[in-house]
Amino acid sequence: MEASFEITLQMAIAVFAGISAQVLAAYFRIPSIVLLLLLGILFGSDGIGLLHPHLLGTGVEVIVALATAIILFEGGLNLDLRELGRVSVSLQLLVTLGTLITLLGGSMAAHWLGEFPWNIAFLYASIIVVTGPTVVGPLLKQINVDRQVATLLEGEGILIDPVGAILAFVVLDTILNGDADPINAIVGLLIRLGVGAAIGGAGGYLMSLIFKRASFLSFELKNLVVLAILWSLFTLSQMIRSESGVMTTVVAGAVFANSSVPEERLLRSFKGQLTILSVSVLFILLAADLSIASVFALGWGSLFTVLVLMFIVRPINILLCTWNSDLNWRQKLFLSWVAPRGIVAASVASFFAISLTQRGINGGDSIKALVFLTIIMTVVCQGLTAGWVAKWLQITSKDVTGVVIVGCNPLSLLIARFFQERGENVVMIDTDPECLVQAEAQNLRVIASSGLDAAVLEEAGLASMGTFLAMTSNGEVNFVLAQRAAEEFKPPRVLAVFPRDPQASISVSNKVNQAFISDLAIKTWNEYLNDGRVKLGTTTLNELEFSTQCDRIQEKIRTGVLIPLLVEREERLQVMPVNQDWEIGDRIIYLLHDPRPSLLKRLSGATQSTPLSLEKLAEVEDLSLAQLSQLSTSEAPGG
């Protein structure tokens, strides 16, 4: 009875400490793994001594195996094949060539700097080829890096985990059995990957069929059925070929996620919660079992080993794997910096330490200490600074430039002109050949097709664009276009011209912003542009007159004679959303209705073909006599 209570107490402490770390990490907006490591060490034998994972016996290995299956399956669920296709070559190289570079570079550093024997050095390097999706995912959500970089980092973290884990077990098997033939090692790696992929593919398809056709099951029960099948697939794969289960879980998740399963978001939510719990408990238990003395006993050579891994091996890896990609130097530098190791490396290292010790081979505790030193240094250094580095390199999502505009008309061409003059990439999409001819005349890239086709948006390069704007003459279509673009391509800024409430779902959508003003009569303003009955104005909001300027512009918006088009802030030009909060220093670019008759305008020298010039307009800039008298009265002494 006492033994069972001790185990219960250990698990309760681990769960409490793990969830506490997650809560604190969310509050302070730092990577959760940092606090999980700190609390795990604090609660362990080298801290206050509340946690003793060895009391769980072989139960720790069971927890590690089943929890890792959940973590990697959830990672597979997040694999979007469409997104991965855009960086497929670089991703394939990172998982293959990148693994080899890290294996060789890490083993040489561990041998020459850490003074480990070659077999142990290779084992260490095989463990740390993986990056941690459970660390990278939350980190990318916090810093909102641009989509192309985020997709590459997420894809690498998820796909390299099973490859790295199986590679590590192949290297361990080679060391334990004394078989140094590289051909056998490669064959063993490929067999495990093949067995895992085959079982995972079949299992993922089976899960999707259950979700689609088992209508008699509640969603809660379907989620549990998927969990039961997942663990069964993992166990079956392990029985057929040891250590192939990790590949099974990732492939099963990817197949399921890309099978167009209804209500998949419910499963994602359930598995996401299980993943948080699994990561929390695993890291607490593994960190609590870590001997701080063994880390310090490694010496300076091991510290230099990790530094070489971070500052030499990783940059070489990224340089070679992204050589022919369209990534710029800022994106490549960020990828070179962010490669934190996570739960898979920690769990594999802990298991290897036990295996080596049981077989009487020295180096098990040292490998575990060095792997945890790598985790600590990469997570703390890279995790805590990634946001600052992304801002410094200007690759956060708000820094992404370029615009895709669906709907080619006088108003959209005017907006496109401003972005084009800034040197930003602009793509126009429409089905009207006559309108597209006008766009081509302005040297704009045009695609004669429907924006409802995802392939067209992909051809336009929306995945790497900063803004999507739907402004056809049909507001309902604009909203649907914007929703689809937001869900499939996730550009930082998604805007559309649509009625105030074209459908009930608009009120719950937070991905699409209404452009310009509420209920914009786009046909009317296009007629104004065609007839030359508009002026193009600009005003900069200053501290002295800020409230007066805002009131003046808002009054003209309410009377329907002005629409704000663009706002320039911190030298960045953006399409004006309805809910934009203006700040001092903002430069507002707007259209003002000029109701003078067309004949009078032609007599005054303005023609339909004359390009609008940007100017300060007296109708907006100048104060009325009443306002001037009020201002002078308020500024009078004693007033």
Automatic annotation (TrEMBL):
Pfam family, one: TrkA_N
Domain of life where this protein originates: Bacteria
GO molecular function terms noted in the UniProt entry: antiporter activity
Gene3D superfamilies, alphabetized: 1.20.1530.20, NAD(P)-binding Rossmann-like Domain
Domain RCK N-terminal: 403-499
InterPro entries listed in its UniProt record: Cation/H_exchanger_TM, Na+/solute_symporter_sf, NAD(P)-bd_dom_sf, RCK_N
Domain Cation/H+ exchanger transmembrane: start-end pairs: 12-392
Membrane spanning stretches: 12-43, 55-73, 93-114, 120-140, 152-171, 183-211, 223-240, 246-262, 274-297, 303-322, 334-357, 369-390, 402-419
Keyword hit for Transport: yes
GO BP annotations listed: potassium ion transport; proton transmembrane transport
Signal sequence bounds: none
Any one GO CC term of the record: plasma membrane
Subcellular location field: Cell membrane
Keywords assigned: Antiport, Cell membrane, Ion transport, Membrane, Transmembrane, Transmembrane helix, Transport
Predominant place of localization: membrane
Topology class, membrane: Multi-pass membrane protein
Protein name in UniProt: Sodium/hydrogen exchanger
Species assigned in the record: Nostoc punctiforme (strain ATCC 29133 / PCC 73102)
